[in-house]
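Q: Could you fold this chain for me?
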Amino acid sequence: MADKPPDLSQTPWNIMKIFIEATEKEEQGREQFIKDGLKGPPDGRLFFPDEPVRLQGISSRPEFNGVVGKVGKGGLDAEGRLLVRLPGGSGADGAGGKGQKVRVHPSRIEPILGSAANTSLLCRIRDTRFATPGGSRWP
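A: Sure. Below is the predicted structure, expressed as structure tokens.
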């Protein structure tokens, strides 16, 4: 019988390469989990006044898709929508000056978060805001 060739998949270089690929895959999965989990709180009460947000998936007014605004004060209205203040433009069409206010369903709002640290901090604030002194006063 002939000897089997050595298993080269177990060399130190291959083990290191497998470890690097697994680590990268884990990082991508973690980033995707964070991104998917924060596409918008299911409950509109979890948005803070003045929290920066991006509008998305609006079919009745597609020109608002991708526009960045801030959540207004007052929380949810009777129809379950949030007030979002959009910035005023300064274009040639004369649409400058004061911004526009629109009522948007929370599922059409995407929080704007800069980094994983901001994401983590905002999640912690959202989870514990009723445990903080005065936190129950927030809409």
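A (continued): The chain has a mean pLDDT of 75.
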